[in-house]
Structures are given as structure tokens and as C-alpha cells.
């Protein structure tokens, strides 16, 4: 046992599943598609560890659509690691997305709602349109993404006092809207076997 990372913690819950040795230091993530062959989610892109992907294969929950060259071995089996898998059962998107920091940024497309500039997530803050000190609540309808300079400039003033109105009236997005926004932000690392599935799902431009 080279490094003890045999995937046992994941696979061990299922006593009758084979336990495979580690493929080494690389991660070998698998792109996870829904049963309609579209990614389960775009942002963050739905990716499972090789351990979870292999487990799902043996539980017959997924079909393997593409594989890495790399193989893993158990005492009696050898298999190539899946690089793209599709769920056999369709999972409908949740109707109401969670009210999280990330989803607020995604709804606002990572752009400050006052000056309109796009920012990387760490440079964005939250602004209460009606300040908390004036009774503003922390809700989809009252929280927007804002860059630090705009947030500072607005401070605890009401929108009209500050002369700063959000570019879009904030409201609760649908899961579909968040997914659509997420498609505009592909992740940094894409395995080549994933590209087809992401490419064929992109909108045709007229
Ligand atoms: Zn700004």
C-alpha cells in the first residue's frame, strides 16, 4: 500500500464492492451528466472524484460514456477510470435555489450591481439595498453583489440618498436562471473528453 489512499473510506461503506488501489497522485475527476446527457450542474461544474465515480458504476447508477487511459486494480479486477458518466435516473433541478453568497453572485453574474463591473468572487461584497440599520432584511430582494468601492460609497445610505440604484431589481432567481448564468463561466480545467458534452449543449448563435 503506497500511500494508504485506497478509496477505502468511500467504498468501504459497501462491503461487496471491490476496493481499488490508488491511481497515483493525479485526481482523475469524472464529469457527471444528468440522464438527459447535460451536465448535472454548470457552475460549479458537476464533477465527482474517481472513487465516487467507480462506486456509482458498481452500484449501476451511471453509464460510462468516456474513460481515462489510466487503470485501477483491485485484487480481481482491472478497470479504466471513467472520465464522463451519465446518471441512469433523471434528477430534476430544485425549484427554489438556496439563498447563498455564491448564488447571489451567480444571479448578479459576478458584476457589481451599482457600477456594473465584473469582478472575481473574492473581490465582490454584499450590499443591503435598504441598509440593515434602516430595517433592510437579508433576502434575495434586498441583497446585491457590489464591489468594495461602491459598497463603501453607499455605506448605510438609502438608495436615493446615495443616488445609487441597483441595475437590476433584486429578486429570487429560478434554478434555471442560475444554471443559465453558470454556463457563461466555464471552469479553468476541462478534460478533453468533457468538451463534447459541454460543446454540444451550448446555444447556437443566430
Ligand atoms: Zn461597483
Q: Write down the Rg.
A: 22 Å
Largest sheet: 4 strands, mixed
List SSEs in N-to-C order: HEEHEEHEEHHHH
Mean pLDDT: 85
The unreliable regions are: 1-12
User: Which molecules are bound in this entry?
Assistant: zinc ion
Overall, the morphology is elongated
How is the largest sheet built, in terms of strand order? 2-1-4-3
What is the number of beta strands?
6
Structural class: alpha+beta
Q: Share of helix among residues?
A: 10-25%
How much of the sequence lies in strands comes to 15-25%
Distance between the termini: 56 Å
Q: How many alpha or pi helices?
A: 7
Write a structural description.
The protein is α+β, with helices and mostly antiparallel strands and 206 residues long. It has seven helices and six strands; from the N terminus they run αββαββαββαααα. Strands 2-1-4-3 form a four-stranded mixed beta sheet. The N and C termini lie far apart (56 Å). The model is unreliable at 1-12 (pLDDT under 50). Residues 112, 114-115, 117, 146-147, 149-150 line the site of zinc ion.
Feature tags:
single chain; 206 residues; alpha+beta; 4-stranded mixed sheet; two-stranded antiparallel ribbon; 7 helices; 18% strand; disordered N terminus
Amino acid at each position: 500500500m503506497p500511500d494508504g489512499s485506497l478509496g477505502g473510506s468511500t467504498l468501504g461503506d459497501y462491503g461487496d464492492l471491490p476496493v481499488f488501489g490508488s491511481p497515483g497522485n493525479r485526481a482523475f475527476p469524472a464529469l457527471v451528466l444528468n440522464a438527459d446527457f447535460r451536465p448535472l450542474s454548470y457552475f460549479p461544474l458537476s464533477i465527482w472524484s474517481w472513487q465516487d465515480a467507480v462506486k456509482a458504476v458498481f452500484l449501476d447508477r451511471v453509464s460510462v460514456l468516456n474513460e481515462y487511459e489510466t487503470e485501477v486494480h483491485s485484487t480481481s479486477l482491472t478497470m479504466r477510470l471513467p472520465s464522463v458518466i451519465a446518471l441512469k435516473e433523471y434528477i430534476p433541478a430544485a425549484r427554489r435555489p438556496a439563498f447563498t453568497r455564491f448564488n447571489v453572485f451567480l444571479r448578479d453574474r459576478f458584476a457589481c450591481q451599482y457600477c456594473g463591473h465584473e469582478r472575481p468572487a473574492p473581490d465582490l461584497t454584499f450590499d443591503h439595498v435598504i441598509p440593515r440599520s434602516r430595517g433592510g432584511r437579508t433576502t434575495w430582494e434586498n441583497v446585491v453583489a457590489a464591489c468594495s468601492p461602491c459598497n463603501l460609497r453607499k455605506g448605510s445610505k438609502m438608495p436615493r440618498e446615495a443616488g445609487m440604484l441597483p441595475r437590476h431589481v433584486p429578486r429570487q432567481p429560478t434554478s434555471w436562471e442560475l444554471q443559465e448564468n453558470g454556463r457563461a463561466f466555464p471552469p479553468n480545467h476541462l478534460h478533453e473528453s468533457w468538451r463534447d458534452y459541454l460543446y454540444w449543449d451550448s446555444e447556437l448563435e443566430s
